[in-house]
Amino acid sequence: MSPAPGTPEGAATPEHTERSNTPEAPETAVASRPLPPGPEGFQLLGDETAGYCADGACVLPGVGEPGPAEGRPTD
Amino acid sequence: MTTPASPISVHVWSDIACPWCYIGKRRFERAVEQFGGEVTVEYHSFELAPDTPVDFEGSEVDFLSRHKGMPKAQVAQMLEHVTELAAAEGLDYDFDAVRHTKTLLAHQALHHAKAEGKQLELVERLFAAYFEEGRHTGRAEELTALAAEVGLDPEKLGEALGAGTHAEAVQQDIDTARRYGIQGVPFYVIEGKYGISGAQSSETFASALRRVTEERAQNPEPSQSPARGAAPAGARR
């Protein structure tokens, strides 16, 4: 399975907790396991099984099978 | 001033060419029904594949296999899987008919619709046109025809598309998404505080809405502005 979109090849999976130096950042994160890529500064809800699209392609994380195509970072 | 009775604001970054965005839309709508409270929803632009030509010649399978270098059979199998998941949400995806295209003009049309108070209607129409009807949503004439179906003035939209009236607004949405670190869609920002990535379950969406309500009840003070930098609430569901 490919790395999650938003996770460059070889890069660590982003932690879905908020930066302490972000003024609007909530103090705690709800998620107890990795989430699909999301911005810092928001308290992320949900889980990693949700499908999403990035860079013209889509994935269904958690199933072990990509969607229409594997996602990559948009940058 | 935000009160417990005021609508909960939800900002959604999405692309009409994103199959998960349409699926997520259905799930979110069901969540709002379950929640029962008032929610305002505003869509924001996220161009999934900006390098896509307006008139791509070929099927969705062709595009994805070329774009990702995957065998066509594998792509077809994946699309079938997504189609099944969409069907579970009552959506009739037809990837054989999909006209893969650049969605920049569609995003501009959605901003025009927002200004006219018809954004949610056009979002729904464009998703259906793209995934279920094989309409060419990259062309201005097709967009104006679809917009007319939801009550928008096609001539007015045509002029706006021709003049690029909303091009800057689209770019601002894309820039905001980048600034937030949004790398995938759909992405939901609830009350400028909670982020929900992907087409999560209706239960997840509903839980987030209930959570906001509970927090408002516990702390009925003026709330922060929605989704830092994003425009305040748009159409109301």
UniProtKB/TrEMBL annotation, chain A:
This is Uncharacterized protein. The lineage of its organism: Bacteria, Bacillati, Actinomycetota, Actinomycetes, Kitasatosporales. Residues 1-14 have a biased composition (Low complexity). Residues 1-75 are annotated as: Disordered. It comes from the Bacteria.
From TrEMBL, chain B:
Residues 226-237 have a biased composition (Low complexity). It comes from Streptomyces chlorus. Signal peptide: none annotated. PANTHER family: GLUTATHIONE S-TRANSFERASE KAPPA, THIOREDOXIN SUPERFAMILY PROTEIN. This is DsbA family protein. The lineage of its organism: Bacteria, Bacillati, Actinomycetota, Actinomycetes, Kitasatosporales. Residues 10-209 form the DSBA-like thioredoxin domain. Residues 210-237 are annotated as: Disordered.
